[in-house]
Design a protein that fits this description.
Chain lengths: ~325, ~270, ~260
């Protein structure tokens, strides 16, 4: 059996959380003896990735996404289980691993607040001991790709969230890592910046063959850049497969948008359709499983005679929400 | 090695450029610290000279004591103060995890990326001035031997101070705390502002063998000026500062690494 | 008046929740007291100098650190922080005076820490301080009056310096200047009566000695009742003068904010 590029086997991580006791005597007591509760942040998660894959790692807050990334990048030791990235065990050979990975942990900036980005670039050239030529080439490539020319010489404190994120991503890629871990790269960004980032991530993956794992809350990120999806909740893996399979597994149907010129007729309750949203001249109607789009359209036109009718595939965001609900 | 020197230099450049981004503040800060230290030096000098002696040390001798302490402290603090006082915050904000994803030891990366407080230039300059004035008032004959002795003592003192900073910061790996351990370190350090011979034997013992801050200034100054050390202590003790410095520094790094291991396995 | 009291209560309450800080405060206060005990034992022994005994000096040290910890505050860093995160305009919209809001805040913050630090020191001190050092009724009254004035004066000085933050990018260094002057001319570390004559004369013309030094002088009975009017009226004059100045600076600051934005 050949090994995949990234192998995660039966990975577990427990956190011990100290109970805090009340009162001064409690504070004194806690100096000597503490009681803990154990939280299982990651439970028995296994997956493998081939070189060059882009995988979306999703789950609600506190699902264990960041904890997994921290174990993959060598920040945390697993409680049990194993990780191997390109043949290296990150938490045993942290420094060697660090040469081959790029990490961006959300908005936690690696940049110096008072200085332009170019200063941090120079620092990383020395930190990773990069050959001059590789460094120059990559600088030019990422400055161009992420459209950073206009703000490369401005102090970081004057930059927008989107500009800082671009810079953080560029910095984590200067040493041509094999893997890039992105923890919530688009959080808090506006629509345009999100699009630029998504396009850039796709481009980097195509051009440099970088393996990418990204966690996100924004399902549009997943749809735009990932072919594959791993979903966890409460530390456990719920799904691992292609986006198409994900839809097939969790999709509960589709919805239709009906628009009316005048006041719509009264809604007739029935088992096949559900009125999901309703405004003055517009309905969103969800169709039950097993009805074809063609039948639903004909049926609804006959019943309500709308001016316009659109069929909408269910948004991945709604599917994910439904999947979490099922898990509860 | 060559790589490390280059690395060191490029981080140092960044530290300087960061301060220079606020040149006015930097200068005002330097002058402010001079004002503050000059005031402290002057009050202590006034006190001791108005009484003549404190524990057999006269005003100028106490100035040597205080100047050596400040100089060694500032050297240690310029590398380790930001590192030590910021660790807790950096762990909470997740910036510390960033240091764990870099291809150098996280200890080194922390020091390189948040150390170098070049503001300590003011401490260093004023304590050198005070030392020079005090030594010449004592008509101390500067010899090469004496200069080497002073330098080695100051470097050892800086190592002891560095060790104190490193050891205090280790606490941050275990608990989400404020600076209370660092504050406690400062409270204990305050004891060495005066010759330790004024304290009871228990405190002398602690400052020599348990929390050996006395090796930062008291023993070096005693060696330099030929002052009495606590009775019963071996006569070579004042010359042990370099050994104590290197030993404590190494121990503190071991302690820090142990704390780091704990952090990596519990992620507190 | 009531709203300021609420501010005071709120910041007092939020201080009480930091238990480990309280513990650290007690240890820290005891350690620094210990140093002072041995220092003055070494300097004075059983003797008396400048009419000051060991027991007097312990009282001096305790009262000084009590008064300092009650009144310390970093107004500049508060203003700086709210300038950076942009909340300064909200501070100005509050239906109360920024000055008295800050005053209530500082005392609320300090009072708990001060008690925590002072009580253990007093307990130990009570074994070492002789009744001869304690004042009579008139001097206690004078001490209380001048302490109130001194605390207000300390606030006035820190507030005034803090207002400079409106014109500075960063202001951590302001407290260094203040500390320097307070240490040297305020007699907070060493009583001014041990100073050379010309220095102690200069100190009369600066506000710093009226903050903690003069109140402590009353407590130790060093200032006779008939000359009490001098330090008390000096403190009053400084208070009036400085609050006139801070009004001017405040108006300039508000104008600057209105022109440049927060």
């Amino acid at each position: 059996m050949t090994m995949s590029f990234i192998e995660v086997k039966k990975l577990c991580k427990d956190y011990k959380i100290a109970k805090s006791e009340k009162g001064i005597s409690g504070a004194v007591k806690s100096l000597f003896h503490r009681e803990y509760t154990v939280k299982q942040a990651v439970r028995n998660v296994s997956f493998s990735l081939e070189k060059g894959e882009v995988v979306g790692y999703i789950g609600p807050n506190g699902a264990g996404k960041s904890t997994t990334l921290k174990m993959l990048s060598g920040v945390l030791l697993p409680t049990s289980g194993t990780v191997s990235v390109g043949g290296i065990v990150p938490y045993k050979n942290r420094r060697e691993n660090a040469r081959h990975i790029g990490v961006v942990f959300g908005q936690r900036s690696q940049l110096y607040w008072d200085l332009p980005i170019s200063d941090t670039f120079d620092l990383y050239e020395n930190l990773y001991n990069l050959p001059k030529e590789q460094f120059r080439k990559n600088c030019d490539y990422y400055i161009d790709l992420l459209d950073m020319k206009d703000f490369i010489d401005q102090p970081v404190r004057q930059l927008s969230l989107g500009q800082k994120m671009k810079a953080n991503i560029a910095i984590s890629l200067l040493h041509d890592p094999d893997v890039l871990y992105l923890d919530e790269p688009t959080i808090g960004l506006d629509v345009t910046s999100k699009k630029v980032l998504r396009d850039a991530i796709k481009e980097i993956n195509a051009e440099k063959k970088t393996t990418i794992i990204l966690t996100t809350h924004d399902m549009d990120d997943i749809e735009a850049v990932c072919k594959r999806l791993i979903m966890i909740d409460q530390g456990q893996k719920l799904f691992d497969g292609t986006l198409t399979d994900f839809r097939a597994k969790y999709n509960s149907g589709f919805s239709l948008k009906l628009e009316f010129d005048s006041v719509p007729p009264a809604w007739q309750k029935c088992s096949q359709y559900e009125l999901a949203e309703q405004s003055e001249h517009q309905w969103i109607v969800r169709a039950a499983d097993g009805i074809s789009a063609k039948d639903a359209m004909i049926d609804l036109i006959n019943r309500y005679d709308p001016t316009n009718l659109y069929v909408q595939e269910e948004r991945i965001e709604d599917i994910v929400r439904a999947a979490y609900e099922v898990n509860k | 090695m060559k790589h490390h020197v280059k690395l060191f230099y490029s981080f140092f450049q960044v530290a300087v450029r960061r301060e220079m981004a606020y040149r006015g503040t930097y200068l005002a800060g330097i002058v402010g610290q001079w004002v503050s230290f000059a005031a402290t030096f002057a009050t202590i000098y006034i006190l001791v000279s108005s009484f003549g002696m404190v524990g057999d040390w006269n005003g100028a001798e106490v100035m040597v004591l205080y100047g050596m302490d400040k100089l060694a402290y500032a050297l240690g603090a310029s590398f380790f103060f930001n590192f030590s006082s910021g660790l807790s915050r950096r762990i909470r904000s997740g910036e510390f995890d960033g240091s764990l994803t870099k291809p150098i030891h996280p200890f080194l990366h922390e020091i390189l990326s948040c150390g170098y407080n070049i503001g300590y230039v003011s401490h260093i300059s004023i304590s050198i001035i005070v030392l020079v004035i005090a030594l010449s008032a004592l008509q101390y004959h500067i010899t090469l031997h004496g200069v080497l002795l002073i330098l080695s003592m100051v470097v050892s003192g800086a190592l002891i101070q560095g060790a104190a900073f490193i050891a205090s910061s280790t606490w941050s790996f275990f608990t989400i705390s404020d600076h209370s351990v660092l504050d406690l370190m400062y409270d204990v350090r305050d004891f060495i502002h005066y010759p330790i011979t004024i304290y009871p034997r228990g405190i002398q013992f602690i400052l020599t063998f348990i929390l050996p801050f006395a090796f930062m200034n008291f023993y070096p100054a005693a060696a330099l000026l030929g002052k009495e050390i606590p009775t019963g202590y071996p006569a070579f003790l004042p010359y042990l500062s370099p050994v104590v410095g290197v030993l404590l520094f190494a121990l503190s790094i071991l302690l820090w690494n142990w704390g780091l291991k704990h952090y990596q396995s519990t992620g507190s | 008046m009531k709203k300021y009291f609420v501010v005071f209560q709120k910041s007092l309450k939020s201080e009480i929740t930091y238990r480990s800080a309280a513990l650290a405060g007690i240890v820290s206060a005891l350690l620094s007291f210990l140093i002072q005990i041995f220092l003055w034992k070494a300097l004075l022994g059983a003797g008396v100098r400048q009419d000051t005994s060991f027991s007097d000096m312990l009282l001096y040290v305790i009262l000084n650190s009590f008064l300092l910890s009650l009144t310390k505050g970093n107004v500049a860093s508060v203003i700086e922080a709210s300038m950076i995160d942009g909340t300064i305009s909200m501070e100005l919209l509050r239906p109360m005076s920024f000055k008295y809001y800050t005053l209530a805040n500082i005392f609320g913050k300090n009072i708990y820490g001060t008690l925590i630090r002072t009580v253990p020191v007093l307990v130990i001190g009570s074994f070492l301080i002789s009744p001869a050092s304690l004042p009579d009724g008139a001097h206690i009254l004078l001490f209380v009056i001048s302490t109130v004035l001194g605390a207000l004066l300390m606030f006035e000085v820190t507030y005034l310096v803090g207002l400079l933050a409106f014109w500075l990018q960063r202001c951590w260094f302001l407290s260094w200047y203040l500390n320097g002057f307070l240490t040297f001319f305020g007699g907070t570390v060493i009583p001014l009566w041990f100073y050379p004559d010309f220095l102690s004369k200069i100190s009369y013309f600066l506000p710093f000695r009226y903050i903690t030094f003069e109140p402590v002088n009353f407590f130790l009975g060093k200032t006779p009742v008939h000359s009490a009017w001098l330090p008390i009226s000096a403190a009053l004059l400084w208070l009036l003068a400085l609050s006139a100045v801070d009004k001017l600076i405040w108006h300039a600051a508000v104008k600057k904010l209105a022109v440049n934005g927060g």
